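Hi! If you just cloned this repository, the fastest way to understand the data is to look at a raw example. We've pasted two of them here, unedited. The first protein comes first, obviously.
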Amino acid sequence: MPGGGGNFLSRCLNFHPDINCFKECVNAGYEKKYNILNYKKMQTRNPITDCWIMFEDSIKYFTDYNYSSMYNIKEIENIKNVIVFSHSETEFERLVLYYNCDIRITNFSKEEFNWAIHQGLYKNSPANTKHYLTVGKLYKQKISVPCKNLWDFDLLCDNLVEIEDYLNVEKNIKECRLWQEKLWNEWKTTWAPEKFKKKILELKKSKEG
């Protein structure tokens, strides 16, 4: 769902030696992956002039989720555990039934739903994607990652172990966790600031008035 942290979770998972989300990271070591996946550039981002979507799309997935196109089977036949990223309930998921969502970020609480809205607005999610927020309230997945767990690295680690177990890869690799935590510490500095949330709330109240 827009603003829910899916791109971050993909980057985070990609640090694992046997999980692949991005073409440039295949067979790369931790440091090289970090140089590709880090958020340094966006920690001093100007939300007006620096487009978050362009930053995310600068690293290529194995599938073009923007256009609901499948990945090239030959391209990935020798690559382990490819994560296919999609805004769930798109044509990609509905038509390609054998790619049903295995891992979903959920937003069952109002706090999580509002947080995702604020992040989506702050990070330039197109207006026509906001309805995808409702897919965070579905149960059609093997693993649910509560949106709020992304706010606390210890809670996120519980979900990472669950995902690693589901993918049948080595769990709790210490060095991998250290790089993931480094990435998480950078990512959290890019969240919508409180003053942005207050402006959104004021705008909403003015329209209601």
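Ok, and the second one:
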Amino acid sequence: MTIALSNGVWTVTSTLINWSTMDSAKLYIDTEDYDLVNPATSFVVDTDPVDGVYQFILEVTTDGTTVREKSCYFVDATFNCKVVDAVYSTKSDRTALYYYLLKNAGACTDCDKLKELFTIANNAVTDDCGCN
């Protein structure tokens, strides 16, 4: 499954989506769910999501058999600038390492770990970690 976000529109593509053979498709983004309607592979989100890690689960049913595909997506609208500021002011490259991992973990499907990593990095850039 590949996921893209542009101007508030999520685009989800998958080899599982084949409207000539499947009965239904449902997409879960964290706790929200969307019924995909033929031939939709994209839909509009009301507003651009905030920076963070989002879990996507595509559920396709064909002839009574349900198959699920899972992916994670890191939204980075302003977080990169916060990381630059934090690294510059603290002279610590640890936050940059966390950011690098988040940006390059597209193949990871353990969204809970990526969400924890984002929380750690976000706490570092906002100084909510109680470190200072």
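That's it. A detail worth noticing about the second one: DSSP finds three helices and seven strands in the chain.
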